[in-house]
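Sample 3 of the quickstart, ligand magnesium ion:
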Amino acid sequence: MPAPPPAPLLVVVCGLPGAGKSALADALGRALPAPVLSVDPVEAALWRAGVGREQPTGLAAYAVAQELAGRVLALGQAVVADAVNDVHEARAAWADVARRHRARCRFVEVRCPDERLHRRRLETRVRDLDGFPEPSWQAVQRRRAAFADWTGERLVADSRRPLPELVSEVLADLARPSDPARPTGPAGSPPPRS
Ligand SMILES: Nc1ncnc2c1ncn2[C@@H]1O[C@H](COP(=O)(O)OP(=O)(O)OP(=O)(O)O)[C@@H](O)[C@H]1O
Ligand SMILES: [Mg+2]
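Result:
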């Protein structure tokens, strides 16, 4: 009998604004290859379509990206998600999409531990995002303070390192089987209530 096809793969790239998510997500998308679903361009498109900024467009953009991710996984294909994912609910929703499609789900948190470099990158980058306001460094600090702790398994990618190195590291991580000794719940889900 032919071997069953391998489970499709969802890679969720997370981290603070300017940490380097989109740079890594796009590089992974090219390397795998896989489509990259980035939440910020979806939100910008909603605004351009006339949806008011007072509406919960951030939440809607996650919902759109998660729906599309599910559709790609349903085709048996890999997909990369690119979003800050600073709250447990967002992380759990990605894990749920993967579970529904019997896909493997891997979380990658991108961090830039050099604050000066992080700030310089944030303040000097040019994004192709018509109408999307750039967050200030102060806004990033506020999000850092509110960023939910990780309680599940995830790979940390240090964006001080060159992108090709990070891509190789993530691909190597994706190739390894899940470690049964590590927590198996959705990465970033709230700790169980005692
Ligand atoms: N490993 C890296 N090496 C060199 N430059 C990088 C690296 N990672 C990111 N950068 C650069 O840093 C800047 C910020 O990265 P990026 O736009 O990917 O951040 P982000 O996490 O997607 O932010 P946001 O949440 O606001 O979209 C970009 O100019 C990007 O090219
Ligand atoms: Mg980005």
